[in-house]
Amino acid sequence: MALLEVENLHVSVEDEDIEILKGVDLTINEGEVHAIMGPNGSGKSTLAAVLAGREEYVVTEGSIRYKGEDLLELEVEERAEEGVFLAFQYPVELPGVSMTNFLREAVNSVREARGEEELGAADFLKLVRERAKLVDLDPDLVKRSVNQGFSGGEKKRNEIFQLAMLEPTLAVLDETDSGLDIDALRTVSDGVNKLRSDERAFLLITHYQRLLDYIEPDYVHVMVNGRIAESGDKDLAIRLEEEGYERFQREPAAA
Amino acid sequence: MSTSETEYLENVANQEYEHGWRTDIESETLPEGLDENIVRYISERKDEPEWLLEWRLKAFRYFERQVEEGNYPDWAHLDYERPDFQDMRYFSAPKEKASYDSLDEVPDEILETFERLGIPLEEQKALTGVAVDAVMDSVSVATTFKKKLKEKGVIFMSFGEAAREHPEIVKKYLGRVVPYTDNLFAALNSAVFSDGSFVYVPEGVTCPMELSTYFRINDQNTGQFERTLIIAEPDSYVSYLEGCTAPMNQKHQLHAAVVELIAHEDAEIKYSTIQNWYPGTKDGEGGVYNLVTKRGICEGDRSKISWTQLETGSAVTQKYPSVILKGDESVGEFYSVAFTKGHQQADTGTKMHHIGKNTKSTIISKGISAGVSNNSYRGLVKVGKNAENARNFSQCDSLLLGDQCGAHTFPYIEIGNPSAKVEHEATTSKVGEDQMFYCHQRGLGEEEALKLIVNGFCQEILAELPMEFAVEAKELLAIELEGSVG
Ligand SMILES: Nc1ncnc2c1ncn2[C@@H]1O[C@H](COP(=O)(O)OP(=O)(O)OP(=O)(O)O)[C@@H](O)[C@H]1O
Ligand SMILES: [Mg+2]
Fold first, then answer.
1. Residues of chain B with pLDDT under 50
2. Tell me, what's the pLDDT at B205?
3. Which of B444, B456, B459 has the CB atom closest to A109's CB atom?
């Protein structure tokens, strides 16, 4: 069943008169893994931000349906409660806010929305240990302030750790592989693979075909200049690696 | 900023004060106005020794001169109408008694008042491990755990009692650190102070529990002038906390307290404040003027004084809890969170005066402003010419909630010895849209997210509060931030 249906999505920046997304169509079914590649500035992060509900982007045309409902009607936190998760390209630091407090609030608000009971302290800590292990996150990081002073790679790993804690239905990973060393890339990918399931879908934004060797996608899309220029299977990524984006950019934009 | 966030912050800024009710109790109150007779009356009602009356009168004359000469301390970044000293009352006591010898004598209404404020005075119900004194208007109501403290030789009682029972100690130290000539409000307090707390910790004694005083203004239009004196003899330790609330009142009320701390050799005093006086209405009507002089002296070598304050109340706050670092290797600390919203104004900070050698001071100040409030840090680090190797570290961070409030930092540094090392850092930030978005993306609503971020911002300071009160402080901050999200 279609989990996410993006149709003819046009997006502009709130105050300025620039259109960033110029008619994106994308359908993701439950359990599928989709990858989006494309040159810098083509609109990949913008799409991710619009899915998560960032207010500075305005949808001027088109629609997004999630689980059959209008996603654009929901507040940011409501989307999170409904299972939309965004692993940030640039995770945000929250000085003085302990990871533990932050995660407990997050886990419990998502659980409450699903009609589940709040996790007690012992169960919560057990879950933390288990999921930290899944992505090989240094347990000491959980004792620190959210992302504060984390290395680039630690921040990325922390995003996947939160993904594992919150068990979303649609996980959008914005360049999670950038800044990870080779071993980290492998452990994080293993973690993601373990989290794959029939209900959970992934949208991977990446610049590197290598990630897709580890996490095998069902579909690969190329975003160029605010549109999906081509879609295919994982072989498309291999072709892109060899040819680059030049041929898309030379083509005049389709009407 | 998103509209829901703006609405939420407006709610925060308009939050009602929850301790605004008044206890109906018959009280004996002096008429408005101030003259020598009022000073004499207060002293007489409190059965004070002659020397204390004389001291009050000297202070009063000094105060009168300051008023005549117009020496009002108006240099702070504050904008308010000066209090009219003839238009307020200086003494108010429950009708039948001006002091109580035991809890049994305290009227039920007063016990209930404190119960309702979450401060149970009956010993079996009292917070475990915390001795409490409660001062309502001009009178100390009850001091708990007296016996247990006595076994250790710790004296913890109301100031009035101490003046009668331990005159030699009171006489020796009263006005030593804050002389009545210090400023107009210190002079006024010295003339008309009604009660307050007295703590004496003998040599070598670690006070076995937290000591705490709750100040409550109840009567309308009565000023609150309490006086606190804490003496830590060599090698002793004490941790003391004061809390304050007041009913809503259309008129501004004056609170002009004086606190003096004396730490002898190797002694340590930790002084914490949770200040939640009535801040006035959301339109800026009424509220307490909190104009307070607090100072400690590290008299002996290796002594330490640490001030921690959480300031959330009052219409106007002006206070600079300070430390005179006289002993060699003595340590002074100032940790502060000042939260202003609505029309509140705060000008607060500290003065660290390094005199001894190898003295060290730390200043960490966190200002949070919302609504149309104004929040200033003002601090002086002064290194005397003989203070070899003095060290200071200051950090002042401001967090703005919304864009109509103000945050200011006024750091002053005077260095008289070239070996001094003084560091100052200051930051101002707005609760970032990125931070809020990150929290929302993880399922947190406006209120939860803001609470987390503000608590995180104050974390270092809250961690300095005695454990028994850290929870209370967090709850107070949460209440300050609470509001229904639009
Ligand atoms: N808030 C904004 N204001 C103005 N321009 C914006 C804003 N957000 C995005 N843009 C512009 O929109 C375009 C798409 O940005 P986006 O971040 O989505 O690209 P991307 O595909 O994720 O690129 P990268 O691969 O470099 O991460 C860029 O030209 C960017 O400058
Ligand atoms: Mg991007």
1. 1-3, 124-128, 483-486
2. 96
3. B444
At B61, give phi and psi (nearest 5°): -65, -40
E runs forming strands in B264-373: 268-275, 287-298, 304-311, 316-319, 322-325, 331-340, 345-354, 360-369
Q: Rounded to whole angstroms, what are the CA distances from B195 to A55, B178, B229? A: 55, 17, 11
Which domain covers residue A104, as residue numbers? 4-250
As given in the structure block, the two tokens for residue B370 are 């919302």
pLDDT tens, residue by residue, B353-406: 999 999 999 999 999 888 888 898 999 999 999 999 999 999 999 888 877 888
Closest chain B residue to the Cα of A114, Cα to Cα = B443
Residue at A255 is within a domain: no
Is B438 within 8 Å of A81 when comparing Cβ atoms? no
Flag whether A44 is in a domain.
Answer: yes
Q: Does B453 touch chain A (CB under 8 A)?
A: yes
Instruction: Locate the domains of chain B by residue range.
Output: 3-481
Q: Is A191 a pocket residue for ligand 1 (Cβ < 6 Å)?
A: no
In a domain, A16, yes or no: yes
Residue A138 has pLDDT above 50, yes or no: yes
Q: Domain of A88: which CATH number?
A: 3.40.50.300
Asked if A92's CB is within 8 angstroms of B437's CB, the reply is: yes
Q: Is A56 in the pocket of ligand 1 (CB under 6 A)?
A: yes
A225 — pLDDT class (breaks 50, 70, 90): very high
* 3-class DSSP assignment, residue A253: coil
Total domain count, chain A: 1
CB < 8 Å from A in window 393-452 of B? 432, 434-435, 437-445, 448, 452
Instruction: Look up the ipTM and state it.
Output: 0.94
Q: Which of A50, A94, A169 to mutate to test the interface with B (most CBs of B within 10 A)?
A: A94
DSSP-derived 3-state class of residue B14: helix
| CA distances, B110 to each of A172, B8, B24, B100, B159 (Å) | 59, 36, 9, 12, 19
Q: Quick one: which ligand is closest to A47's CA? A: 1
**In Å, how far are A49, B115, B208 from A65, measured between CA atoms?**
15, 54, 64
Instruction: Indicate the pTM of the whole model.
Output: 0.79
